[in-house]
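User: I'm preparing a small set of examples for a lab meeting where we compare how different chains pack in three dimensions. I only have the primary sequence for this one, and I'd like the structure in token form so I can line it up with the others. Please keep the answer compact; I'll paste it straight into my notes.
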Amino acid sequence: MKILIIEDDLDIQGLLVEYLESNSFDTKAFANPIEALDFLKNSVDIDLVVLDLMLPKMDGFDVCKKIRDISDVPIIISSARGNLSDKVVTFEHGADDYLAKPYEPKELLLRIDAIFRRIKRANPLKTIGDFSIDENKMEIFQDGYLLEFTPIEYQIFSALLHHPREPLSRESIALYIGIEPKDRTIDMHISNIRSKIFDDIKNPKYIKSIWGIGYKFIG
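Assistant: Understood. Below is the structure token output for the 219-residue chain.
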């Protein structure tokens, strides 16, 4: 999961980045909300935004509204402005949750987990290119058709789908799915996956071999 933090207090920003990354979240942080909005417009893999209200160059309420104009990404407000009227306005602008400073980073983590659980229950399918993943049932569909993957094939292809255009080494794939990185084991499973998704190794549409490294999803 990748989280965008918009926070101009660099001490708080650093604390949130360190805490979230220690809990296995990827983070991207900005103090300037205009730069953050530009980044969000060109990014397809942000899963949640943590937004301060007291920001330079643009009011946090306006930032919240502009985020909602371009994305349905969940927004958690993180602000020292804790009065009821501020909360009402942010929810009217599309925020999903509100945390009044000061708070323990653990509380932010719990709020993030709660939002992701709600999203998962409401829409278990995550679409990436021609594929949809139902993580609850551990199923992957290609153009609406269920792929008959073994559990290991599901985990390998899921790892590739969740890191689009990012080369993954055989070792990192093995670590991701919890097996020993033995010679040719990952290659054998990739070959089976390619066969099931009708991917031509000489002219790949979905899985590209990266010489000396491993594989990446390009579809």
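A couple of notes for your slides: The chain has two domains: 2-122, 125-217. The chain has a mean pLDDT of 91.

User: Perfect, thanks.
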